[in-house]
Amino acid sequence: MEMADKFNCRHALKTVPHITLQPPFKSESAGTEILNCLKPLSEMNHPLCVSTTGFDSFDNRVAFIDVKVTDELKNTQRYTHQLLAERKIVPLNCRPFHPHITLAHRDLNPVFLPEIKHLVEQKEIKWMFEVNAVTLLIHQNGKWQSTGEVSLVES
Predict the structure, then answer these.
(1) How many angstroms separate the Cα of 2 from the Cα of each of 78, 93, 108, 151?
(2) Taking the alpha carbons of 47, 45, 76, 84 in that order, is the dihedral positive or negative?
(3) For 122, which DSSP code?
(4) How far is CA 30 from CA 34, 50, 106, 140, in A?
């Protein structure tokens, strides 16, 4: 909310904070079919350990908290993409993986980037956390909404 209040960047609030493993795609498949396709992720049988490395941006368009790329995270992303591509839900591609947590994007005024960077650096945002599930987000009514999840830890 601080970003929205100080810099009038509200668009990123339309979705829950997340790290994208598979870029957005259009599909005729139902959410349940996609989730079933991702079930093998639960065979990892342990949470992902994620850590952030501070502020960064994509050209003056997107401000974000950078996520450390570990082998575990990279392999999970590749496996996710492979599972979806095998079922022809997404085309097979080699798009670069740059995990991050978006702070501001579409309504970001580039003039504020230095100020946003300073704010984030002041807060020393260096988080470490465990991710226990992969959530499928579907774009409906102008918002990204969760349609279900696949546990990374078998019950």
Answers:
(1) 34, 36, 14, 31
(2) negative
(3) H
(4) 6, 29, 28, 13
Q: Are 68 and 52 in contact (CB under 8 A)?
A: yes
- Which structure tokens are listed for 27? 């599909």
Q: What are phi and psi of 32, to 5 degrees?
A: -65, -35
Residues facing 139 on adjacent strands: 144
pTM score = 0.87
pLDDT, tens digit, 9 for 90 and up, residues 98-131: 999 988 887 888 888 888 888 888 888 889 999 9
**What pLDDT, in 10s, does the model give residues 88-101?**
998 887 778 999 99
Task: State how far the Cα of 42 lies from the Cα of 103, in Å rounded to an integer.
Answer: 29
